[in-house]
Design brief:
- By secondary structure, this protein is an alpha/beta fold.
- Helix 14 runs antiparallel to helix 15, helix 29 crosses helix 30 and helix 32 packs across helix 34.
- It folds into five domains: 199 residues, Rossmann fold (3-Layer(aba) Sandwich); 190 residues, P-loop containing nucleotide triphosphate hydrolases (Rossmann fold), CATH 3.40.50; 103 residues, Arc Repressor Mutant, subunit A; 82 residues, DNA polymerase, domain 1 (Orthogonal Bundle); 103 residues, ATP-dependent DNA helicase RecQ (Arc Repressor Mutant, subunit A).
- The protein has a seven-stranded parallel beta sheet with strand order 3-4-2-5-6-1-7, sandwiched between helices. Strands 8-13-12-9-11-10 form a six-stranded parallel beta sheet, sandwiched between helices. A two-stranded antiparallel sheet has the order 14-17.
- Helix 12 links the parallel strand 10 and strand 11.
- 39% of the residues are buried.
- The chain contains 34 helices and 17 strands.
- The longest helix is centred in the last third of the chain and has 21 residues.
Length: 727
């Protein structure tokens, strides 16, 4: 078909005047009856590559698609460009018998140009028999990465597609994917027996997307602040678990953000409703698991946030690719903590060994991406087999915008390359890090590598440093990871040339992500806001000291250390705001708050402080019921062990709750319990200690009494003391 005829068809069916990227040559290849393999990033216009040829060719094109929701969207879209409802159908488990009969009739009558099927439906013998009896124009496989075990969304039923196609008809195949590393690409072609296919690979560079990784500290607070700067704009937040999706969506709603949850555990009606509300801009934010987004064609998503780091760089690329599809602003912010990686590694346990190895390999790539200081765009594109000059990033990633210091690294690179050669290119990155830094791990021992002359030659640097060197030499092409052997490091020709003739090599200092929250504690919006204010802290400590002298009570009885520190982040200036401070309840705020609020207000005004009070700190978990129950049970003088058992808590957790209740200003009387474990003299001795102490730290009290009292006894006495003195 002439170029001009194709443009006329494009205009007639889709209303566009010109093709995007490589669409035209792909469509021509399909029309000429050749196999095609299309690798095109999200938003590049993949579906057009099989939809237009299907409308132009004789017969029905079979499109294999992994998701029912995706099929429905695609079918609706095609029907919108045609006056014939029967032009496109889908066949999957959601249809009734009558509907399936209607679909088959339309195909037999030659009305249907595109039939979307799930791979499971294709394997049914009755469907194979039916499709053998009709005229098929070609097979299209959407989301073809599902074929490869190395793809981020592997589905075993996709591996059987080739044998099923052969049973049905010998027609051309077009396979399409938005993410494929060279390894996945080869795997797909081999499995489909189409190594002869013409490969169309578009650049994976999305130059309008800004990439940023942040340490996972106070992530909920950071997310709320971030969204507040994007008012009225659409965004997606990805979480790994359904529970986190529900919690975070509720938290955003409580804080005045129009957000909805989306995950596979919701019923189909709710999911569809939430998706439509997001598309129709009745909701600004969707909080979702990865179930959301495949085929969601919303061009103006302005930001994609990853609350948890995804399982692979492919997933990350595909999910971030949902931002800025219209070429406008698109920010991609991910929160990273190594603890999340450890959780993901736990999920791999119990799976077949090969699957575990692949999973670990994919995780190590995402860790490298998160921790690297190299241009993020360059890193992603290198992963997808594309070379990129970081100057072209235009500061569109955090590493280019805020570059880390560089140093001459020639000697370190040589040490690494020599180590890879000495160990015969048989080990993975972790092993070389231990080998170079002189760490005798069990693996090093079992290979007897600790007796080699090169062992520990780089011991003045730690494993974190050597990991950084490895990442940077991989991105620069001196070393590559051999996928077949699950990531052992091999020297490239460039690497061997470097060893023969060493050149200058600029190493960038890596990020340090060691200081992140442990997110297991659930959502907590207390604690830090912006940067810690040392000057204010000293003023508050002085004020506390003078009040403690005046009232003749220890300073910590007024406000404990964590409360003062929190004031230096939050700058409370009203009673309400003060009760949002860690460890400050209404009672304590009323009793001691006024002078502190006055001091902070004056300080804020004099120093022009911008307070983080755009933050409504509203907690989700309704603990008040349990707290009331706990206090009532203490009033009934029940043993603390029994109270704990009834609430499914250890004695330690009950004491912890009592400490929180008392430190925020509520009085509790646990004398009945203490009288059972300590006699009056002992109680008096500990009480006197707390009356004179400058700190309420248990470790110090324990030391003071030379271990005569247990930590538990001291904590219970501190509760008694604080309750009577402070409340």
């Amino acid at each position: 078909m002439a170029d001009n005829d194709l443009k006329v068809a494009l205009r007639k069916y889709f209303g566009f005047d010109s093709f995007k990227g490589k669409q035209e040559s792909i469509i021509t290849n399909v029309l000429e009856g050749n196999n095609s393999f299309v690798i095109m990033p999200t938003g590049g216009g993949k579906s057009m590559c099989y939809q237009l040829p299907a409308l132009l060719k004789e017969g029905t094109a079979i499109v294999v698609s992994p998701l029912i929701a995706l099929m429905k969207n695609q079918v609706d879209a095609i029907r919108n460009v045609s006056d014939n409802e029967a032009v496109a159908h889908f066949m999957n488990s959601s249809l009734t018998k009558t509907e399936i009969t209607k679909v088959k009739q339309d195909i037999q009558d030659g009305k249907t140009k595109l039939l979307y099927v799930a791979p499971e439906s294709l394997t049914k013998q009755e469907n194979i028999d039916f499709l053998t009896s009709v005229d098929i124009s070609f097979f299209a496989i959407d989301e073809a990465h599902c074929i490869s075990e190395w793809g981020h969304d592997f589905r075993p039923e996709y591996r059987r597609l080739r044998e099923i196609f052969e049973k049905i008809s010998n027609v051309p195949i077009i396979a399409l994917t938005a993410t494929a590393t060279p390894k996945v690409q080869y795997d797909i072609q081999k499995n489909l027996n189409m190594l002869d296919a013409v490969v169309f690979k578009s650049s994976f560079n999305r130059d309008n997307l800004y990439y940023e990784i942040r340490p996972k500290r106070e992530v909920e607070k950071q997310i709320i602040r971030y969204i507040r700067t994007k008012e009225g704009k659409s965004g997606i937040i990805y979480c790994l678990s359904r529970k986190k999706v529900e919690e975070l969506a509720e938290l955003l709603q409580v804080n005045g953000i129009n957000a909805l949850a989306y995950h596979a555990g919701l019923d189909a009606h709710t999911r569809a409703k939430h998706q439509d509300m997001f598309l129709m801009e009745e909701a600004d934010v969707i909080v979702a698991t990865i179930a959301f987004g495949m085929g969601i064609d919303k061009p103006d998503v302005r930001y994609v946030i990853h609350h948890d780091i995804p399982k692979s760089l492919e997933s990350y690329y595909q999910e971030t690719g949902r931002a800025g599809r219209d070429g406008g602003e698109g920010e991609c912010v991910a929160f990273y903590s190594y603890k999340d990686i450890e959780k993901l590694e736990k999920f791999l346990q119990g799976k077949p060994v090969a699957e575990q190895e692949i999973g670990k390999q994919l995780l190590s790539e995402i860790v490298s991406y998160a921790e690297t200081s190299v241009c993020r765009r360059k890193f992603i594109l290198h992963y997808f087999g594309e070379s990129f000059d970081e100057k072209g990033c235009n500061e569109y990633c955090d590493n280019c915008k805020h570059p880390k210091e560089r140093r001459e690294g020639k000697e370190f690179v040589l040490m690494l390359l020599n180590a890879i050669q000495d160990l015969q290119e048989m080990q993975k990155a972790k092993h070389y890090c231990a080998y170079l830094s002189g760490n005798v791990t069990s693996d090093i021992k079992s290979y007897k590598h600790n007796i080699l002359p090169g062992f520990g030659c780089g011991k003045e640097r730690d494993e974190h440093f050597w990991n950084a060197v490895i990442r940077q030499v991989i991105v620069s092409g001196l070393v590559f990871k051999d996928i077949e052997t699950y990531g052992t490091l091999k020297l490239s020709d460039e690497g061997k040339a470097f060893m023969a003739n060493p050149q200058s090599f600029s190493l960038i200092k890596e990020h340090d992500f060691s200081n992140t929250d442990d997110d297991d504690a659930g959502i907590n919006l207390g604690g830090k806001g912006g940067a810690f204010d040392d000057v204010l802290y000293d003023l508050l400590v002085d004020l506390r000291k003078s009040l403690s002298k005046q009232k003749n009570i220890p300073p910590f009885v007024i406000f404990q250390e964590p409360s003062l520190k929190d004031m230096c982040f939050q700058y409370p200036i009203t009673m309400d705001e003060l009760t949002n401070i860690q460890g400050v309840g209404t009672g304590k705020a009323t009793r001691y708050g006024a002078p502190f609020l006055a001091l902070i207000q004056k300080y804020v005004e004099e120093n022009d402080i911008e307070r983080p009070q755009d933050m409504v700190v509203k907690s989700l978990v309704n603990k008040s019921g349990l707290k009331v129950q706990l206090i009532q049970n203490i009033d009934r003088k029940l043993p603390l062990e029994d109270i704990g058992r009834a609430q499914g808590k250890s004695i330690d957790e009950v004491i912890e709750e009592l400490e929180a209740i008392v430190s925020s200003g509520t009085r509790v009387n646990i004398n009945y319990y203490i009288d059972d474990i300590l006699d009056a003299d002992n109680q008096e001795e500990i009480y006197d200690y707390f009356s004179e102490a400058t700190t309420d730290e248990i470790a110090q009290a324990y030391e003071e009494f030379d271990g005569d009292y247990t930590e538990e006894e001291l904590r219970l006495m501190r509760i008694k003391f604080m309750s009577e003195m402070a409340n």
